[in-house]
Amino acid sequence: MPNEDTRPIKVEVKNLTKKFGDLLVLDDMSFHIRKGEFVCVVGPTGCGKSTFLNCLTRIHMPTSGDLYIDGVPADPKKHNISFVFQEPSALPWLTVEDNIAYGLKIKKLPKEEIKKRVDQILDLMGLQEFRKSYPGELSVSAEQRIIIGRSFAMQPDLLLMDEPYGQMDVKMRFYLEDEVIRLWKELGSTVIFITHNIEEAVYLAEKVMILTNKPAKIKEEVKIELPRPRDITDPKFIEYRNYITDKIKWW
Amino acid sequence: MDQKTTKQKAVHSILYWGLPVLAVVLIAVGWISFSAFNPELMPSPAQVWERLVKTFTKPIAKTTLFGHAWASLRRVLLALLVSWVFGIAFGILIGWNKKARAFFGSIFEVIRPIPPIAWIPIVIMWFGIGEFPKILLVFIGTFVPLVINTSTGIEMVDRINIQVGQIFGGKNRQILKEIVIPTALPSIFAGIRTSVSSGWTTVLAAEMLGANAGLGSLVTRGWQGSDLSLVMVSVITIAIIGALLSTILQKLEKVVCPWNN
After folding, report:
1. Hey, are the CB atoms on A134 and B170 less than 8 Å from each other?
2. Most buried pick, B42, B134, B158, B198, via CB within 10 A?
3. Distance CA B59, CA A91 (A)
4. Which of chain A's residues have a Cβ under 8 Å away from the Cβ of B163?
5. pTM
6. Cβ contact B163–A76 (<8 Å)
7. H/E element, A18
């Protein structure tokens, strides 16, 4: 990757502030994310990561400041924002393929386009043989794959992932981390990935944003300039990891 | 070891096939011996069978047993159709809309615990003993479980499922129609199942108070004429139809909610 990032700015957050009553949770956060960038957000537990995400998805409205996508205030009805929740959130009455198609149907895409995208995602996620199964018949990790697939199928302007692998064992997490990287490269989506696992952040991100304790501000943005696939035992990798860990511990 | 497990499996399958049969046999033996010792209290199976045949050769109130069964079933089905439409709609309304729940909720809480049979005197005073009051009674008896199950199902829909719809930019009505109602479908179906059994009970109670046709009227007729065989014939018919209805609904549920094993 060249040192100077020339990709256009996709998402711009300006002075984002959120208060619940008198409690200040997000304090004047400003940053931007370039088109097709993969950003990980790390921060201490309870620092307001979820509130941060909920403001981005418009589940909560910010108290002041705003989020712009392509220069316009973000609006789920206009823009394409996708979300992978921490908990499994597949719709239980839909088959795997219908779950993946669900968001596309809400956006009223043409039938052939939906079919094309669903097939592509099923292939990429290795879910072809389960396309007619219901989520309840599959394992938790397969269900999480459906949700990740569903989000990528939207080809979102912005894909938000909230600790999607928090509940999985190490082996499955490594596997799904590689999957996400593969989908991201293939489809060129812009991703914000929230995690408290620093190793995961360094493994995935082009840029890591470190949040401070509550009220959350952006403490530092760290560019991860490591070739892929990354090796978690590489001394440089460890150096990044230790650096970020120190930043989180230090205040 | 394999041999042992196959042997165990065989024993199990015989056991679980045999136990229900054993239960039926025990009841039959109990019935036969009880009726043999107390013929004035209980007719024997053979007498009941004879009485059953007689309901076809010598119709009661110009109607065979099938006619009576159909008369009861028709009342139940008519009432159910109306109550499915209104009960489910009302349940969705108070489950989804907070204002509607605030308005109707307390009235419904008061009406809810009244057993349907308690409505019988009022309904008969107001509407007499024709078809309409019977159907109305069944409607009352089936409406309540439908509303309760539907509204609870709607209220219990996981927030995360609703958020999925919001994030994808679904409109409120889309979220209700495409996420909330399908998620609540198993509960709604539980309401339908309860409504059918409750409707079947209520119609018989209503018929026992005055009707020319219907299984409930047969029970009353047998009772008043000391024709215990006729009572038994009606009761067994009631039981068989009730069991059939519940089997049909179970099958239907698998078709309507296939994800809900």
Report:
1. no
2. B134
3. 55
4. 57, 59, 83, 85, 89
5. 0.77
6. no
7. strand A9-20
